Amino acid sequence: MPTKLVLVVRTDLDMGKGKIAAQVAHAAVAAALGTLSTPGFRTWLREGQPKVVLRVSGEDALRQVCADAEAAGLPVQLIQDAGRTQVAAGTATCCAVGPAAVADVDRVTGALPLL
């Protein structure tokens, strides 16, 4: 069964490209570490760690993705910034959903646009 990791980024924060890259990297690392001992992680690793980066317009939408993922039983990691550069400390910047089965992840994130 194919797997993937979806990273969802807020676009209302006007983060620079480097900041977005760092936040997505935080989310990917947190997702990998959070699922390290699971069969889904092993499958995802074996498949080449497929990832997709999507966007939401604001914090409410990001938190809704997290809530929907949790309700679906999917691994989810919410990233909150440390506040050292472009956004205030504690700002929710992005999240990771998965790694998990593509069909399960798509039920939560499939309608979101690409970043």
TrEMBL record:
EC code: 3.1.1.29
- Per its UniProt entry, which superkingdom is the organism in? Bacteria
| A GO molecular-function descriptor | peptidyl-tRNA hydrolase activity
The first-level EC class reads hydrolase
Q: Which reaction does it catalyse?
A: an N-acyl-L-alpha-aminoacyl-tRNA + H2O = an N-acyl-L-amino acid + a tRNA + H(+)
Annotated GO CC locations: cytosol
An example of a Pfam family matching this protein is PTH2
Is the Oxidoreductase keyword given for this protein?
A: no
Query: Sorted alphabetically, which InterPro entries does this protein's record hold?
Result: Pep_tRNA_hydro_II_dom_sf, PTH2
The keyword Oxidoreductase is annotated on this UniProt entry: no
Name the keywords, alphabetized: Hydrolase
Family membership noted in the UniProt record: Belongs to the PTH2 family.
Q: What name does UniProt use for this protein?
A: peptidyl-tRNA hydrolase
| Record organism | Dactylosporangium sucinum
